Inverse folding.
């Protein structure tokens, strides 16, 4: 369906897309996920023929987007982040204009436009000027223009940006309905959106593809294996001694406990063995009551932060913030000391 090979886009010394390669198959919803500035929109603009790549190829149904643009673009419907609508046209006039541009046969236009207006639920506003519509309706009109001509691939760039929760749910439902007849590629930096809608997720960071899998597959990719959350009563030194006895525990991190008198820690576990029973009996021997011992829930957000390196960035920022606070406190103390003198 779509083949991307060694795709690269440079703006001077800045590399927006860095040797990107992937394949899109028919009949699925693909999520294109990444932080702002990761290169998602640039990649989509190249895929649709809006801008040229510095290197690499994009083939749509076997047609090169640069060498045979007309044949390749017939298979694509595109909704940019800002819907490309004409505010002084009515919804029907605009969709008729788009149908003419896309060379939909004259005898098929009326039926196709009415079908798509029903599908995107804009039929009830078809005679209203687009400039008088809400943002949610404008987004639906943008979606309708992408479907005109019934292309095999629908590419949506941040389709829910700026919408209220009700409108977001409505657009998501429309996307799911589109997937019955089209392959959908959905760009977003909203984690809940891709996990709720997409069958397959590609994560891009700094112009590179860092992961490509199902939402479930990505959840299993977590670095450091499984994790357990443990809360016990007792001395921290005694707990550490017990944890060091277990070779399956590769790392542990102490955090503030919710209950007074308790020690809370997150354990990183290697291998498939369930060590909870062994840990239970060992802590009993040390007379350390277990208040909580459960597997840690990992989310798609955790995967995203790890794979894009955002987690490390946050930790570094927190450390820097902590150092700055410490320096400020130290300076304030020095001033107080000087005042006392």
């Amino acid at each position: 369906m779509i083949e991307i090979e060694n795709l690269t886009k440079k703006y001077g010394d800045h590399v927006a897309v860095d040797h990107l390669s992937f394949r899109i198959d028919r009949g699925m919803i693909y999520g294109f996920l990444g932080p702002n500035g990761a290169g998602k929109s640039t990649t989509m603009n190249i895929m649709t023929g809006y801008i040229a790549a510095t290197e690499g190829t994009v083939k749509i149904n076997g047609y090169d987007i640069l060498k045979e643009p007309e044949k390749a673009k017939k298979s694509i419907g595109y909704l940019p982040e800002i819907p490309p609508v004409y505010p002084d046209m009515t919804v029907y006039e605009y969709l008729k204009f788009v149908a003419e541009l896309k060379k939909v046969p004259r005898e098929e236009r009326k039926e196709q436009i009415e079908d798509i207006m029903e599908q995107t639920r804009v039929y009830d506003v078809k005679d209203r000027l687009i400039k008088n519509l809400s943002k949610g309706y404008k987004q639906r009109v943008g979606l309708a223009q992408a479907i005109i001509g019934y292309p095999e691939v629908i590419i949506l760039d941040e389709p829910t940006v700026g919408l209220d929760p009700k409108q977001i749910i409505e657009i998501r439902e429309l996307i799911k309905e589109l997937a019955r007849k089209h392959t959908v590629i959905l760009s977003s930096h909203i984690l809940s959106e891709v996990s709720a809608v997409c069958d397959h997720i590609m994560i891009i960071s700094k112009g590179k593809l860092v992961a490509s899998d199902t939402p479930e597959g990505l959840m299993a990719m977590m670095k450091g294996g499984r994790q357990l959350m443990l809360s016990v009563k007792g001395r921290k030194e005694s707990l550490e001694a017990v944890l060091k006895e277990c070779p399956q525990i590769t790392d542990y991190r102490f955090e503030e406990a919710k209950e007074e008198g308790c020690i809370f820690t997150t354990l990183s576990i290697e291998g498939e063995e369930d060590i909870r029973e062994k840990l239970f009996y060992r802590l009993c021997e040390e007379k350390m009551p277990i208040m909580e011992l459960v597997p840690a829930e990992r989310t798609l957000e955790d995967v995203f932060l790890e794979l894009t390196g955002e987690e490390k960035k946050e930790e570094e920022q927190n450390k820097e913030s902590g150092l700055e606070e410490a320096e400020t406190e130290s300076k304030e103390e020095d001033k107080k000391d000087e005042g006392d003198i």
Residues 310-340 form the longest helix (31 residues). The radius of gyration is 27 Å. The CA atoms of residues 90 and 281 lie 73 Å apart.
